[in-house]
Amino acid sequence: MWKYAAVAAASRAFSLNSSTRWVYRRLGNVALTRMRVADGLPERYVDRARRLLAACETNRILRPGDAVLELGTGWVHWEALVLRLFHDVEITLYDVWDNRLFTAFRCYADQLDDHLDDLGEELGFDPARVRTAHERLGAARSARTFDELYDTLGMRYVVEPSGMLEELPESHYALVVSADVLEHVDAATLPAYLARTTALLRPGGWSLHQIDLVDHFHYFDPSCSPKHFYRYDTATWRRRWDSSVQYVNRVQRPEWLDLFEAAGLQLRREERVSEPMGDVPLAGAFRGLAQEDVDCLQTILLHRRPEPAVPHQGTSTENPAAATIAPASRH
Ligand SMILES: C[S@@+](CC[C@H](N)C(=O)[O-])C[C@H]1O[C@@H](n2cnc3c(N)ncnc32)[C@H](O)[C@@H]1O
């Protein structure tokens, strides 16, 4: 528990003002680059690639020329990179601050090359398509800067500190995708944020989000439960543990499902990663959770923006039960 408390205290100290936050981000990025390069491409990133490509394939989400938006693109633009290797799409990379790590990107891109053949085989891709992916990855790996990478792959990087997706065109994107991002969006803004992502999708467009429901201090102190934060009510959490540099909104699965529905999206598929949490104490806000939701550590949600009903055209040929996301491992 002391590590949990120490990381939370340091996070609160770094959250004090814009200068301390700047220092935190600078130091964090140096440390993260070292760690990511030393550890290499994590298996969970390869799983994410597999799941994303499988979802796009099974549900025929993308056509050539489509636009894709990656939210919280982070250090290495992972989802965008993987998609662009296999699809002729234009990608907008969105974040609230510039936390890109070019050395880590190069490391992951180099190691991704070793996985392309297996991914192609598992997903039943034509060998020519896999060859094209290798060629595109080769071009990406020879970029010397992120700007060269964007020119090569047709990507655009947008940083918007408000984080409210204001500068992006409406009814434009075929797919909005993110991994380990939505749990960091301010809880108070989530209804507006998800309504905005719905508006950015073209009718019939898809939304695929991996949401990490774990107490993130657990990653620094695995001796604490992955759901240690359940024991704190909102006021105590804010007073003792919460910080802007390590913010997580603690929104749990049923609330996510309600938020997406209220934003006007239709659930097409959910994959969950769960572990029995035993009798972890639940503060008021969490007491109403069903046991399966208490135990849920990660949810991967595939939604669709409905298309306007076309009168007198008969029933849709689309089978909702066919929407699929391949299983993935936890963050
Ligand atoms: C845990 S990181 C994940 C980065 C990346 N998706 C990955 O897995 O490699 C969370 C990311 O979400 C971004 N973020 C936070 N609030 C956001 C918002 N309102 N809209 C978009 N991104 C946001 C952060 O800046 C950060 O890049």
Molecular structure report:
The protein is 40% helix and 16% strand. It is of the alpha/beta class. It has one domain: Rossmann fold (3-Layer(aba) Sandwich). The C terminus is likely disordered. Strand 1, helix 4 and strand 2 form a beta-alpha-beta unit. 35% of the residues are buried. A 7-stranded mixed beta sheet has the order 3-2-1-4-5-7-6, sandwiched between helices. It has 12 helices and 7 strands. The site of S-adenosylmethionine (SAM) has 17 residues, from strand 2.
Total count of strands: 7
The protein's oligomeric status is single chain
Number of domains: 1
Instruction: Look at the helices and sheets and give the structural class.
Output: alpha/beta
Cα shape:
globular
Average of the residue pLDDT scores:
92
Could you state the order of secondary-structure elements as H and E?
Answer: HHHEHEHHHHEEHEHHEHE
Instruction: State the fourth-level CATH superfamily.
Output: Vaccinia Virus protein VP39
Q: Please report the number of helical segments.
A: 12
Biggest beta sheet summary: 7 strands, mixed
CATH topology (fold) name: Rossmann fold
CATH A-level architecture: 3-Layer(aba) Sandwich
Instruction: Note the gap between the termini.
Output: 21 Å
Strands side by side in the biggest sheet: 3-2-1-4-5-7-6
Strand content: 15-25%
Give the bound compounds: S-adenosylmethionine
**Could you name the ranges where pLDDT drops below 50 across 5 or more consecutive residues?**
316-322, 327-331
Tell me the Rg in angstroms.
20 Å
What is the percent of helical residues?
40-55%
Reading off the top of the CATH hierarchy, the class is best stated as Alpha Beta
GO biological process, one term: methylation
GO molecular function: methyltransferase activity
Protein name: Methyltransferase family protein
Region (Disordered): 308-331
